[in-house]
Amino acid sequence: MSDESEHPTPGSGSGADFLQLDRQTAPARGVTRWLVEGLRSAIADGRLRPGSPLPATRTLAQDLGVSRGVVVEAYQRLRDEGLAEGRVGHGTVITAMAGHLREPRPSPSSALPVPSAGAVPPAPAGPPVLPLPSSWSEPVELDLSPGLPDLSAFPRAAWLRAERAVLRDTTAGSLGYGDPRGDPRLRRQLAGWLARTRGLRADPEHILVVAGVAQALALLAQTLRARGADTIAVEDPGSLGARQELQHWGLRPVGVPVDGDGLRVGELTGTGAAAALLTPAHQFPTGVVLAPRRRRDLLAWAREGRLVIEDDYDAEHRYDRPPVPALQASAPDHIAHTGSTSKTLAPGLRLGWLVPPRHLHADLLRARYASDIAGAVLPQLVLAHLIATGALDRHLRLVRSRHRLRRDAVLAALREHLPRARVEGVAAGLHLLLLLPWLGEGVDDGALAARVREVGVRVHPLSWHRLAPGPPGLVLGYAAHPPDRLREAVHRIAGVVPAGGVALRG
Amino acid sequence: MSDESEHPTPGSGSGADFLQLDRQTAPARGVTRWLVEGLRSAIADGRLRPGSPLPATRTLAQDLGVSRGVVVEAYQRLRDEGLAEGRVGHGTVITAMAGHLREPRPSPSSALPVPSAGAVPPAPAGPPVLPLPSSWSEPVELDLSPGLPDLSAFPRAAWLRAERAVLRDTTAGSLGYGDPRGDPRLRRQLAGWLARTRGLRADPEHILVVAGVAQALALLAQTLRARGADTIAVEDPGSLGARQELQHWGLRPVGVPVDGDGLRVGELTGTGAAAALLTPAHQFPTGVVLAPRRRRDLLAWAREGRLVIEDDYDAEHRYDRPPVPALQASAPDHIAHTGSTSKTLAPGLRLGWLVPPRHLHADLLRARYASDIAGAVLPQLVLAHLIATGALDRHLRLVRSRHRLRRDAVLAALREHLPRARVEGVAAGLHLLLLLPWLGEGVDDGALAARVREVGVRVHPLSWHRLAPGPPGLVLGYAAHPPDRLREAVHRIAGVVPAGGVALRG
Predict the structure, then answer these.
(1) Is B3 part of the contact surface with chain A (CB cutoff 8 Å)?
(2) A161 close to B (CB below 8 A)
């Protein structure tokens, strides 16, 4: 046993994590002064900021192997200088005044790296550059971007109850690195729930729990790319975000037109693509359902060794039309079905599922493992609990009736303020498509959306989601706002749509 | 307004999500029979499995637009057939007997896709294939794989309290698609905490909250690769998992030897690599600290436009040596610092941080957004709360003392049962390195680990983590087990190490 030199007898005084203060570096005399200087220099270089707590005097003394009086004295000196203050029940914290002590930082330009041989090259120019969503950088008074459910209905109490049960019942072992496929308890619950509510044939062993549909698309795109695919057929119009994500991963999206029966499936073969991304149950953004004949043709296309990615993004929201079962059960070996809790609970949960064909399962699992190992365990167990107890079904019934009221409110407001507009895709989902036929095909709906933005309302111009040019339109998400706010938003939109409103402003 | 055809007057009876039952498809007479058949066929094709709940009769009747009696009668018929049963307080559920009704599934081979023109090509042969960890597929009695903390100490009560506070205080808007950089409240808390405990200079605006160090490495590898890098210097020995992950993303790891002073920094330039991955504060798996002179040389190497990835994977655990501040503060424009809560709270949280040089920030953010948009919001807010209230610091003190006791127990057991072994890396961290010098350099430690596995103990052979050959060794993670289990594990290991134990088995 030759580890003696490496681990001296355990004891106190081996140094503090706090500011990495090491007693060994203090002079034999003047330990208090050394400590005060250490604290002052941490304030000066910004490691301690206004509001930062100092450790309890006893704790720090023990870590440093000094008497408690040394630390008490050092804190007192900082207090005397106005750099720290004692707060009842909160110990000693750094004051706002301490901010003035900070040294100016080196300017970014002087700190820029100087490239040399073997240096990290600068970022390449040109596409694909994925734009970040403006929704998180620029607040707007009334954000009617599509895709958000009624977040005020998030079942906080049920979530907390489920979390309590999970924290009470789960084993310590469950908190380790989780199963990259997802926790087995959630996969079992999802298999049953997806079979019951969406008609899926999903073996729990082959479901992948993912961080939302976005992660499912990333993993699918990586896997297709690794197998040599370079194009993918997408709906036109179709989701801009999904298209940009596929591009980021090296797939070129080829648009296939959507009409009143959904994607024109007959045009798929001409694209030469080995895969297609579709929203068959509720096309984004038009809201149409893929017609039965098109479904059959699509399945036939897929069965020739191709892949259909079925993005079931908001199938749970349906108001006055029969449910549309998922495609997946008709050809589970050719369809990768994906969905999430983003439109039923909240996007901030980042919880979804991917039910892929078996022949892609191992590759997708490897890609997931290499991306972030596995999903967070606690939220997965909470969701499993919400499904098992029926709380998710109850929540869905509640939000569906709330969303229907909101849809009705926005429709009534559109009838009143924009009577000439054509409204599509209102039988289901969380958004509608507003067409403005009197404006003519050449009108720039991007400019129109910018004017809507100026009166405090964010909507998507339809052209964002188009590949080929087409008539102008606006996509309005209505689920995230109560009826009175929706009426206000429509009133404002009507005020800036040329010759569209009954009551023009000004 | 021309949407009339698309949305008939709202009302009940538009169909049920449950099995996508649509009243329109029922004959005018015999609705009950139609419903029974729909349920029976869902049982037969596996959409309803033993234990699946049926909806409340009133709910289903309302969805279908039929009288409640129809549903009550249909459920009764299933009960009569033994396919369903009523459970008090749980409604009606499918019985185990119903399993016999299931049709055999088509065999996987008959369902295999037939490739055709434009078909999804088969998976390419050859590396890099990331192996999945055996830890989640094969249980073992005593898993001493390195990397797990004491999960029984996970602060369940504090976590639940913080979650309650978060669910009470957070706005509905916070539950939307989050900031890809991470929630601003957590970034602020992390900036202060990392400055105080690790000496980092981190502006909250430039921290990225990530799903563990694994995601940080994935994003960094993608970004380096996109800028044309094809190699990366790594420690030898060093983490096998990290190396495999870098390989998955297209970077070739080039090993640089580690000695008693850490990485031999002088050999970095010879690799031609523009980036290096290091564990400077506690080298994995040897446990050595990068010596001061080597730190200076490494910073000089990085300042020539290169990138050092500082994996601070378990810096919080330190027993009898002074703290080692992070490298990052010395060259924030050349060092990407990453760490996580995996070794302090639990790996299952998948919560970590990446503090990158500014010039890589935008690319990393785009890569994160294209991978999964953003991290889950609730766990981020809970962690922010745990830092702000000091609960994380208190927890760290607790686990550090528990881990120290565990380390002492495993050391005492090794002294007793394997007195000839050399033990390294015990002053800090959650694992130690066991060297067996009397076995000779040529001995296969992989075979030795397999024999250890046969007596119910999992350890890593040192050779897993090596690139170039070297003396045999075993890596033992000790933090996840109480002292008596560790003594048992060491006793079993000693029993299979040739001529190593005092008391050989059998």
Answers:
(1) yes
(2) no
